[in-house]
């Protein structure tokens, strides 16, 4: 057994700017390492990250100190284990099932996507991130959750404030003030729409939870909807922007994707390449060996799926590249184990089957004049912050 | 060990030696059986290891498994099971597992 190495050099700012060269080196030299600045243990190889996610008895999601608690004003299902987690998750899972997507949402989402894409001005240069990726993600999610009364702007603002609060490890009171404000606005809306959902139930998440056989407590319904708002906008938004960037900077691949009609593959490769959720935290419940190192109980281990998704052991030497036509291997962008992304199927359909083909059909000669102008950012969540494309 | 036969919707059959104690899902992944994704890794949270198993020896689906099956991609039938919930034993020798149609 070897001593756990400590990395004193890496900072959160480095990781936020571009974590990939750092992870590449960690995979090769220190695949299990304590990163001093965060006081967390980073695990960067695919075999380890997958195993950790699939072993919740040793690697618990329950973090009593998580800033998610004040940010969401609740202990949410993301931070629960076992039966308690399952009960809450299954309360809304039917809304995200392939069957309900087909019967209830497919047509609506296609119409929404058409509406939003048709608003974009042909011939002009726009920021696709701001003008399409964010708003369409917000609108689709509002319907899926049963909150269509909320505006795109509200949905996006609430989402960002929840995320900022959940990542507020420095306990900046201003960030919690902003998330409290968002919580108050969301609670007011939830209260307002309850009668609609009890009188006219549909397959939206709120409706399904309210009208379930054994409804979970109302406080947990609220918390779950907030988790979906916190997680359900930035991820499809960032995935869409990432995939469009990947295709526009690899025009030969774009042509081939169109020819073969393999938009789902373009989607899958995009989320592998830059996973919208890059890292997840787990707390050790006992002493455990990871690789060559013994880790004590009560440690916070970060599984770096961003790194696992480029692991040479699976993807060979070119895992750093966007390549739709690489050999297919399962990736970990949606995680694994009990907390496997509840929205994975919804994301595949809305982006891979509806949005991507529609967008490139309407603007077949869309261009990204200067890829260097695109700013990438993020350690926990990652994606482009802008995407200036010319629509033709 | 037990022999398990996987049958694809087009009739293609693959018979493999399955290690006892593993789940049928793990056996399928180890042998690269098409149609078993098992995205959640056996946590009964994704329904991407859904199959049809018409064999009393495998018992019946638990309530949690039934709930998750409702979220499966392909048609759910009375014989639907999540293969992560079926444990291989000598007693299951000769089991036949039918893969569902892919939706796309």
From TrEMBL, chain A:
Alphabetical list of InterPro entries matching this protein: Cyt_P450, Cyt_P450_B, Cyt_P450_CS, Cyt_P450_sf
Keyword line: Heme, Iron, Metal-binding, Monooxygenase, Oxidoreductase
Coiled-coil region: none
A UniProt-annotated Pfam family: p450
A Gene Ontology molecular function term of the record: heme binding
Tell me which family the UniProt entry assigns to this protein: Belongs to the cytochrome P450 family.
In Swiss-Prot or TrEMBL terms, this protein is called Cytochrome P450
UniProtKB/TrEMBL annotation, chain B:
- Provide one Gene Ontology biological process annotation: P450-containing electron transport chain
Instruction: Please give the superkingdom of this protein's source.
Output: Bacteria
Which InterPro entries does the record match to this protein?
2Fe-2S_ferredoxin-like_sf, 2Fe-2S_ferredoxin-type, Adrenodoxin-like, Adrenodoxin_Fe-S_BS, Beta-grasp_dom_sf
Q: Does the keyword Protease apply?
A: no
Instruction: Outline the extent of the 2Fe-2S ferredoxin-type domain.
Output: 2-103
Cofactors per UniProt? [2Fe-2S] cluster
- SUPFAM superfamilies the record matches: 2Fe-2S ferredoxin-like (SSF54292)
Q: Name one Pfam family in it.
A: Fer2
What's an example GO cellular component term for this entry? cytosol
* Keyword entries, A-Z: 2Fe-2S, Iron, Iron-sulfur, Metal-binding
Molecular function terms from GO: 2 iron, 2 sulfur cluster binding; electron transfer activity; metal ion binding
Q: What's the family?
A: Belongs to the adrenodoxin/putidaredoxin family.
User: What is the protein name stated in its UniProt record?
Assistant: Ferredoxin, 2Fe-2S
Source organism of the structure: Celeribacter neptunius
